[in-house]
Design brief:
The protein contains eleven helices and twelve strands.
Length: 402
């Protein structure tokens, strides 16, 4: 994409900056209703799902316009939208693989956050080896009956719907017997149990399905096409939502800079320490690398290209960067970075990469999750080596000759 601003881009930036200056809440929305209200305000202003087609509630916006909005949100310290999985993963999957009736039924409600979504993929014995999943969807005539368990389900507690992978044929190769469904989470037979994390929050859940119902109209694609569809979903999860993630990184960066101006060490502001300034410069440099990588992905998506296997490069890059980011932040903040309850000081609160408010200590702990969810860093390295670079598959220990 052309990174030079046209007169139209400059006018759009001015308009966007004025809007966020006038509408950004003075305090972080915390309750679900408050977060929905902020999301809806952004949607009504045209700042949610900007790259989606207009016929489904989007703006068909250019990559530059989307980048401008991300920049201005970060500068204004604007809270993130809600329904990140719906907008970043589920919606794009429906756009690519869904029937027209499914697009009309679900997409606009996803953008408006009228219906919140989760992703029902991982299982206790099928994490990195997702194709080994055991959850079953059995044909019952006019619908499918679903039985099984999912785990590490982000946002499961608040989700109205889930994007489900389930086995519909156990007689074929494991990759070929999987189908993809849209499953109502608000029905008998679906039980969601929150999982307490090291951060103290419960953003993950385990989900039990016992005789749950999946309508045949909610089958995505063809029966047995689930693995192919999952690759689309995972490519969006690993790369397609990276610009929103960079926005959160940038918002946290500005808070960190403010903290170095306010906190003092040996009677002087932290920002005057040359070592601190060097560390801040390192974060900014790496943050710019992440921003340009996100713009590259955004440009490809706008051209109608799927992120594909190359999204693993983006995923590996940002998840490892996030760890370094918060390690350096802890070095800079010292004892102030270790508090787990936000105080009255503005710099003590920061968003985690999941978009949830928390402290710098909680963001540091959460940053470890990025090297596991959406495929661990080790899995991403294998994908890059085999599918991007064309290297031979890694020799498995159980096949190696002694």
């Amino acid at each position: 994409m052309d990174l030079n601003y046209s007169p139209e881009d400059l006018a759009f930036r001015d308009q966007t900056r004025r809007w966020f200056a006038a509408n950004t809440p003075a305090h972080e929305p915390r309750t679900l209703d408050e977060r929905r209200a902020w999301h809806r305000r952004m949607y009504d202003a045209g700042y949610v799902g900007m790259g989606w087609p207009k016929e489904y509630g989007g703006q068909s916006a250019t990559p530059m316009q989307q980048a401008i909005v991300a920049d201005e949100m970060a500068h204004a310290g604007a809270p993130p939208t809600i329904n990140g999985l719906g907008i970043g993963i589920v919606g794009p999957t429906i756009i690519v693989h869904g029937a027209e009736a499914q697009k009309q039924r679900y997409l606009r409600k996803i953008l408006m956050a009228d219906e919140l979504w989760c992703q029902l993929y991982s299982e206790p014995n099928a994490g990195s080896d997702l194709a080994s999943l055991k959850t079953r969807a059995e044909d019952a005539g006019d619908h499918f009956v679903v039985n099984g368990q999912k785990i590490w389900t982000s946002g499961g507690v608040i989700a109205d719907w889930g994007l489900l992978l389930a086995r519909t044929d156990s007689k074929v190769a494991k990759h070929k017997g999987i189908s993809c469904f849209l499953l109502s989470m608000r029905q008998p037979g679906v039980e969601v149990r929150p999982l307490r994390q090291i951060t103290g929050s419960s953003q993950f859940s385990e989900v039990f399905m016992t005789g749950a119902r999946a309508e045949k109209a909610d089958l995505i694609g063809r029966l047995g096409q689930g693995w192919e569809i999952a690759q689309t979903t995972l490519s969006y999860e690993r790369g397609g939502n990276s610009l929103a993630r960079v926005t959160r990184y940038a918002s946290a960066f500005y808070q960190l800079v403010r903290a170095t101006k306010e906190l003092r060490r040996q009677g002087r502001p932290l920002v005057e320490d040359p070592v601190v300034r060097m560390k801040i410069g390192r974060i900014w440099t790496e943050l710019e690398v992440q921003r340009y990588a996100a713009l590259r992905v955004l440009s490809a998506l706008t051209k109608g290209e799927s992120p594909g296997a190359a999204s693993s490069i983006t995923k590996l890059s940002y998840s490892e960067f996030e760890k370094r980011y918060h390690e350096i932040a802890q070095e800079i903040l010292g004892p102030w970075g270790q508090v787990t309850v936000a105080g009255p000081d503005e710099f003590s609160e920061v968003e985690t990469s999941s978009g949830e408010p928390g402290t710098w200590a909680q963001a540091f702990l959460w940053s470890r999750a990025g090297t596991i969810y959406a495929g661990s860093s080790e899995v991403q390295k294998n994908v890059i080596g085999e599918r991007v670079l064309g290297l031979p598959k890694e020799a498995r220990a159980d096949r190696a000759k002694v």
